[in-house]
Each structure stands twice: as structure tokens, then as C-alpha cells.
Specification:
Number of helices of chain A: 10
Distance between the termini of chain A: 29 Å
Helix content of chain B: over 70%
Structural class of chain A: alpha+beta
Mean pLDDT of chain A: 84
Low-confidence stretches of chain A: 1-14, 231-239
Shape of chain A: elongated
Oligomer: heterodimer
Number of domains of chain B: 1
Largest sheet of chain A: 14 strands, antiparallel
Shape of chain B: globular
Order of helices and strands of chain B: HHHHHHHHHHH
Chain lengths: 524, 258
Amino acid sequence: MTDSTTTLSRPGAIAVRDSFTYLLRAEWTKFRTIRGWAIATIVAMLVTILLGVYGGAHSQNECPSGPCHFILPTGPGGEAVTDTFYFVHRPLTADGSITVEVTSLSGVLETALTPQGPARTQPALMPWSKAGLIVTADPRQGSAYAAVMATGAHGVRMQWNYTGDAAGLAGRASAASPRWLRLIRAGDVITGYDSSDGTRWTKIGAVDLPALAPTVQAGLFVASPAYSAPVSSGISGGSASGGPTDATATFGRVSLRGGWSGSPWSGTTVGGGSNSPYATGSEAGYHRADGAFIVTGSGDIAPDVSDGTPIDGSLAGMFIGLIAVVVVGALFITAEYRRGLIRLTLAASPRRGRVLAAKAIVLGGVTFLAGLVGVAGAIWIADPILRANGNTIYPVATLTEVRVIGGTAALVAVAALFALGVGAILRSGAGAVAVVITAIILPYLLGAAFPVLPVGTADWLLRVTPAAGFAIKQTIPQYPQLAASYSPFQGYFPLAPWAGFAVLCGYAALALALAAVLLRRRDA
Amino acid sequence: MRHALNAEWTKLRTLPGTSWLLLAAAALTVAVSASAAAATSCPAGHCAEDPAKISLTGIYLGQAVVAVVAVTVISGEYGTGMMRLTLAAMPGRISVLAAKAAVLTGLVLVTGTVAVAAALLAGRLILPGHGIGPAEGYSALSVTDGPVLRAAAGSVLYLALIALLSLGAAAAVRESAAAIGVVLGLLYLFPIIAAVAGSPDLARHLQQIGPMTAGLAIQATTSLSSLPISPWAGLGVLAAWAAGALLVGGLLFRLRDA
């Protein structure tokens, strides 16, 4: 008999809440007191941390004088950037503008070193070779900038602060069809224009560079990124050949208006130095002929996606932990069927959907916490060790780091719930574990970790299978204005992080819903 | 021993799950292989593709089903309490395990042969249409070709060794879900950890000792020099894993109460 006053005030609510609390406590007691499950969950957590630390301790990046300490330049937005180019510049001390006519853009690439002899060069212009005008806060790497440029194969572009990109006129610059470029500075705002004849101008974009110093460096620049061509893909992950390239551009009819200082033009190799990326026999520099500037440069002004270890590089142990929690998740229900305990459970709590809900809450909560401790521990302990060993960690925003840690922990929990659902459907532990592991791990293995499938199939697999959820740990973004190998093997997932995670959640929700229906219909 | 074999064969034959699972193993192997062949194309005719390996991609999935069959041969009996009856009838535990291994190996060899032959046939029909055929200088996927025969026969042996590894793991762990977790973890995790491990040396070493990465080296017919381990040595590594699992499983099976 329930207490009469409570029964009178809110009879249903109190009784229901109490019984569900008891149900949660019952499921928590079952989970906690089965030694194997508790041990498996703790081992999953510890293995995630320890393997991350082990990997960090065994990744020495040695330079001649001890561990390397190469620091990736970062742009105004905190992202890693490449900032290497040849710069012909003058100080601009107030508002002003610069206009040029680009009449040619050509390039050479260095063929890879061969056993037959020294490297040779051959004419080739990269699609993203760039020649144009730039206004930059100062010539140090990672400075704020705005630029308008002719490119090898992407027409005229306006780009700013490494990640901004807007398209202008299409087509390549040549003597027959020159590309006129103009940058106008008014305070902190830089506006880019292009024209095919020097009289009719089109505005490409206006960029606000906040807190720009009164004196900036402005002028002509040329950059040409290194090329990379895949040679083979195979069991060890494929190989690629590549090498430096450089580009040469002719800038005619340079005209300056406004507050330019009286100092002469000077040439600077931004970010060059001893390991400059120039092709053999070529040198950065500029000379003037018939009033035109002929400038040769190499490098790129763009986001950097190829250097540095992403923060999820220390999460190898998470996969072992994932398998352990999948086994626990499946056993959480199938063990009850095997021992006949399910009949007792359902006799004590005849509303079967609520039993499944209580199991899901307990399992999800415990595995999320274990995942959170494991993943956060692996990243926060292993990354400083990696850095101390001379590895460069790809910089990420705090929110991204929170997403990777919280999202990966949630991935572990949702995988366990998926196993719970499949376990309730199949009522066989071996079947449930095999189904869930092959559904989550195998597509990731074949598509991303150990590429045996072509990129198109791998992308498709990582969209439609539960393995899409691994997208949650991608940290390096994909940029349309940067030519790179954006395959799953390189850590790029076809779906956005939360979209991929939603696919996995969809599978888990579907399995749990089907499990709830079957649990109600079938005899235990 | 003949009685033990007969008993195990009867048990396995009369369980409804066994034939369905073996059928599923073969069907999934062929389906995944054919899909991989259909998804691969080489328009220029200069790809570093290995036609035999593509045609046998389905083994990656088929082995999981074979592992489930092998695990249930032992764990299923523990789950239902049948094991006590089996051991009361045949107290020689090692001969029980040996009989189970023999019957299982025979079944998996038959299933594997059918699956591998069908997968190769599918590859032979599909791949030439995608620029990977004899016309472009690739192997014709005929079993009279030495390397292709090695890849095909090796894949069948691979499946049998996976079954024995799973049997040993199940005898050691007993709980079916945990045993299948251990087996699939051993198979799938080595290459994933190798891919995430920073150093190339460590990655290569992991691929040399991983049962799946080493064992499936047997499928390669081109660019053998870039393999982390040579084909037969790789299958040997898997055989060592299977022998180790059977040894540990057999020892625990003998020592523990059922």
C-alpha cells in the first residue's frame, strides 16, 4: 500500500518515478557486481590512456641536434598555415592603392630524385601557383593579409588570412589575355578588383583586417606549392612522389596611388631560409625589364593540412576500449537470457520497454564516463610527451578539442548502446558482438586505416555504415582552395563530424527501437 | 577418436545455425569481393592494382562469420550446459577438442573453397570490364597461374586457421561474446593501431605480427617486395597464433571444471 496522502496528490507520477529509480538502481547493481564487466570497462579506459602514452613515448622525431622543435606558423584564426613566398614590397603608410597587369605566369617542377642521376626540372605550372598583389601587416609568417592573384588553373582569386577565398575572373593570365589586378586600402579595409582590360573593373571582395597597423607592407608576390603525385597504393598505405615547384610571373604597368613611402622596392623571401622549397637551379628573386617586374617565387600562402600530428593521433587505444565496451554492452542483455535472469527481471518489472530504457541509461552513462576519462587522459597526457619528443601537434581551437574528447567518449557510449540493442534483438552474445564490431570497425579498417578499397568506395562506406561516427574525431579541416589528398586514409571523412556521429546514433536508435518492440512481443 | 569425431560431426550438423552461418560466410565473402571488384576501376591501365587481392576482399568480412561459427562450437556448449554432458560421455578432453577442431576445419575448408572459387570467378568476370584484365597486362585470375593459385589456396587455409584461432580462444575464454570480441580484436586492431601509430617502423612491425595483416599477405600476387612480410611466412605467423590459441585453450580446457 502506498502512502495515502501521496496517492491523493499525484498518484501516478510518484509511483512511476519511484519504480523507474528502482529499476535504474537494479540495473546499476547488476552492472557493478559482475566482476568481468566492471573490469572490462576499467581496462578499456586504462588501455586507451596507456596505449596513447606508449605511442607518444615511442614517436621520436630526431633532428641532428636532439628532438626537433619545429613550430607550425599559425594564422590570425589560430589555424596552422603555410606562409612561404617571394615578396617585392614597399611600405604603405596610409590609405592607397596598387594596380598591375599580369601578362604571364609560368612554372617549373623538380622531378623526384632518381637513382639514375640528379634531379631535373621540367616546365609545369601548378593549379594553385599564385602571382599577384598582397597587403600584409608585416612579412613574418602567419601575419594577417589580403591578396588578389592570378592562379595556374583557378582564375583570379581574392584570398585573405589563409582561409578566406573568393573567385574573380576565370582563365589563365597571358600576354594575349592579361589579368589586371588592384588592391585598395582604406583604413583596415582592403578591397580587391580585377579586370581583363584595365578600364572596366569588377570588385571581388572587401576584407576587414582588424587593428591593422598604419604602416603595412604591400606589393607583388609569387608562390607555387610543392606537387605530389601518388605512385601506388598498397598494403603499407601507398607512396607518393613529389618535389618543389616554382613559378615566374611578369607584372607590367605597376601603378601606385596614395600614401606610399619613398623607400625603394625590396625583395624578401618570406619563410625561406636554408630549407627553402625551390626547384634545383632556380632561385627566388626579381628583376625589372622594360618597366615590368619579373618575379620568381615558390611556396604557398594557405592553410597547412599536411604537417603535424592531429590530436586524435594518440587515440589508438580507444579502438581496443571500443571492442571491450561493445562486448560488455551485448552481454548486459544477452547474459540475462543465457542465465534465465531475464524472466526474473521482467517479472519484477513487467513494463519491458522501461527495463530496456533503464539498461540503456546505466550502460550509456558508465561507458560515456569511462570513455571520457580514457580519451581525455590519452590526449592530455600523450600530447605533451609527443611535443617533448619533437613532434608537432596540429593546433586546434579549444572548442574542437572539446568536440573530439566529448564526441569520442560519446562514440564509445553509443557503440555500447548499439551492442545492447543488437544483443536484445539477437539474444546471442557472439552474434551481437560480431555484428556490431564488423559494422563499426570493419568499414573503418577497410576504408580508412588500411586502405584496400578505392577512395570512392571508402567514402561511400564511411557515409552509410556505423563507421561514419569516427568522423567525430577529425580535426584538420578540408579547404576547397588547397590541393591535397583528402582521402579517408589521410584522416578526412566524407561527412561532417556531427553528421557522421548522427549516422551512428541513427543505427543505435534503430536497434534499440526494434529491440523494444521485440522485447514486448516475444516471450522471454 | 572415431566416436568423438562422429559425435562432434552430428552435433555441428544438426544445429540449425551452423549451416546458415557457413552459407552466410560464403555468400558475404563472394558478395563483398564482387562489390570490391565492381568498385575498382583503372581507366588508364597503369594502376598498381592486384587483381587477385581485389577479388578476395570479401575474406575480411567472411572471416568474422567463420569466427562466430568456431566460437559457438565451444561457447555454445558452455552456454547451454551441454558441455558437461559431452565431457561425461567423452572424458578425454584433449580428444574432444581435437575432434571439434578436425570437424570444424573440414567444414571451413569446404566452405572456404566454394567461397574463394566463386569470388575469383566473379573477379575474373568483372575486372576486365574495368580496365584490369589480361588485355592490360594483368593476371587472368586463372588457378593454373602459380601466384593466383597460391593466393586462392592460401585464402582457404587462412579461413581454416582463423577458425582454429577462434576455437582456441573460445576454449580459453568460454563466454561466447567475450571470445568473439577477443578474436575480432586480434584480427582488426593490429592494422588500425599500426595506422595510428606514429612511426613507420612500429607500423610495419605491427603488420608483421598481426594475425590478419600477416596472414592475408598470402593474397598478394603483385609487388611482393613491398609487403611487410612474405606470403608464406605471413601465413606461418597466423598458424603460430592459431597454435598458441589452441595450446592455451586446450590447457585451460583440461585444467578447469566445465
